[in-house]
Amino acid sequence: MKHYNAYLFDFDYTLADSSRGIVMCFRRVLERHHYSQVTDNEIKRTIGKTLENSFSILTGVTDTDTLAAYKKEYVKEADVYMTANTFLFPETAEVLNGLKKRGAKIGIISTKFRYRIMELLSKHFPTDFFDIIVGGEDVKTAKPSPEGLLFAMQRLGCSKEETLYIGDSTVDAETAQAGGTDFAGILHGATTREELEAYPHTVVADSLRILI
């Protein structure tokens, strides 16, 4: 496929499988508030959305104060359980190193907190390995708003035409579309090929290896 100057990645279900930690943290909060009927798959289908949106989808709650309280509880659980239950996909390091050797700039645009992403990545990559990481605390509007994507391109000095955004969800596809970049869908997560192919895309593949 075409070579790009910048490869910007979603994190959860794209570079890393954090589903075990995410399900664990959601379940602890949900069961505390007596939402014991929510399935693991229903939780996994919300990965990539904001915590408030996810809790609203899973519980039916729309009150902003209640959702903010659930988010606060989730973050406390994640501080304990998330990093230990998050794992890079088998090809992640190989692909990222291959792109770096090619001279491409690489970055991450995620709704996950930047400090949480960096906590995991520090176990696998040098401190300056990524050219930019944009987390949920770095933007005013979460994906599918293109705010984080546009900010990263500006900081990296890359045009939309030279940038590929890679993700696993329809939120990621919508983000790339809103930001005017090409999109590569990766089938690591709960989103199906058919769901991703409904959006403009360069490729939808089973593995990140398609990039190299």
UniProtKB/TrEMBL annotation:
Q: What is this enzyme's catalytic activity, as reactions? A: 2-phosphoglycolate + H2O = glycolate + phosphate
- Return the InterPro entries for the record: HAD-like_hydrolase_sf, HAD-like_sf, HAD-SF_hydro_IA, HAD_2, HAD_sf, PGP-like_dom2
Q: State which residue ranges cross the membrane.
A: none
Pathway stated in the Swiss-Prot or TrEMBL entry: Organic acid metabolism; glycolate biosynthesis; glycolate from 2-phosphoglycolate: step 1/1
The UniProt entry, under Pfam families, shows:
HAD_2
Q: Which UniProt keywords apply?
A: Hydrolase
Keyword flag Cell cycle: no
- Name the EC number(s): 3.1.3.18
Domain of life, per UniProt, equals Bacteria
Enzyme superclass (EC) = hydrolase
GO molecular function terms attached to this record:
hydrolase activity
| Family label | Belongs to the HAD-like hydrolase superfamily. CbbY/CbbZ/Gph/YieH family.
- Could you identify this protein by its name? phosphoglycolate phosphatase
Organism per entry: Bacteroides caecicola
Its organism's taxonomic lineage begins at:
Bacteria, Pseudomonadati, Bacteroidota, Bacteroidia, Bacteroidales
